[in-house]
Amino acid sequence: QLVTYTGVVPPGLYLDRVLEVAREELLEECDYEREAANTTRFKKLLSPYTELAVPAVVPQLSSKHVLTTEWMAGLPIDKAAAEGAIEPAERDRIGERLLWLTLSELFKFRFMQTDPNWSNFLYEPRTRQLSMIDFGACREYDAPFAASYLRLVRACADGEAQREAILHHSRELGFLTGEEGRTMLDAHTRAAVLVGRPFADGEQPYDFGKQTISKRVTGDVQTMLRERLTPPRKEIYSLHRRLNGCFQLASRVGARIRAREILLEIERDHEAAEQAAELAAEEQATA
Predict the structure, then answer these.
(1) Is the separation of the CB atoms in 237 and 18 below 8 Å?
(2) Burial class (CB in 10 A: 0-12, 13-18, 19+), 25
(3) CA 127 to CA 18: how far, in whole Å?
(4) How far apart are CA 140 and CA 128, in angstroms?
């Protein structure tokens, strides 16, 4: 409260919500039984994708206070990239798999590892194996949220021409209340289009190594902090942290990614899964 009242933090930051979410996530990360369950769940989810590995939990050596898993070989991806031993084509492949993984966690699995720490993603140069570790911070997303967020991402990818769709889905997801003024709506739309640019049709393959999204969005972020009327939903904080971490890691790797192709593939799979679920519900209702 003291920080808010003294004006050090703009009201649109909603610091109380930020701290509330941080406390909840910290408590979850200290729950090793929960982390063991998250790790096992991710290992099962990613088992069909042999290029992505997750350590096995050793239950007989784990407890509420200790978590033991198998050792995963490799270096943190950013460190491996900095050593210069990865060829450009391999950098692109790594970036593509990381982006595919991030979008799949949200839209296909609806279960995301939300800690973007680069050391949680390992690369083994000899085998080209990618591994994920540390599943203390994970979050589930319900189907309506994932569907609405996917529609928002697609609208952002299609640019300013989709302004009304961007604003509609932003209200649907709680980013906006519907009472905002023109200044806020313009800043929100510009920022959304800018963040969606890696998925834009004319930007493929997108060069993450040269991206300047964070710098370019700064002015609009300042406007939104002044003009925002409602804090984001709790699940948004960790989700955006992971998405930003994915973009930053792809930048550090220097990857050029066919990001739109990955997004459209995810969108097709999501629509097919929705149709299959609807058909199954109809069949069950008539049985």
Answers:
(1) yes
(2) buried
(3) 40
(4) 29
CA–CA distance from 52 to each of 18, 47, 81 (Å)? 32, 8, 18
94 Cβ neighbours under 8 A, 6+ residues apart: 77, 81, 86, 123, 130, 253, 255
Contact between 54 and 46 (Cβ < 8 Å) = yes
Residues 243-264 have pLDDT tens digits of 999 999 999 999 999 999 999 9
The number of beta carbons lying within 10 Å of the beta carbon of residue 237 is 19
Please give the positions annotated as active site.
Answer: 115
Q: Tens of pLDDT along 8-27?
A: 444 556 777 777 888 888 88
d(CA 26, CA 136): 9
Q: Which of 282, 47, 280, 271 is nearest to 143 (CA)?
A: 271
User: Within 13 Å and on the Cβ side, how many CA atoms surround 248?
Assistant: 13
Strands 256-257 and 206-207, how do they pair?
antiparallel
| H or E element that contains 124 | strand 121-124
Residue with tokens 């992971």: 242
Q: Max alpha carbon distance in the chain (Å)?
A: 63
Bridge partner list, 207: 256
- Strand 75-76 and strand 121-124: the pairing is antiparallel
Q: Which residues are CB-neighbours of 144 under 8 A, at least 6 positions away?
A: none
How many alpha carbons fall within 13 Å on the CB side of residue 47?
A: 7
Q: Are 214 and 262 in contact (CB under 8 A)?
A: no
How many Å apart are CA 282 and CA 287, to the nearest integer?
9
Whole-structure pTM value = 0.91
Please determine, for residue 270, whether its predicted confidence score (pLDDT) is greater than 70. yes
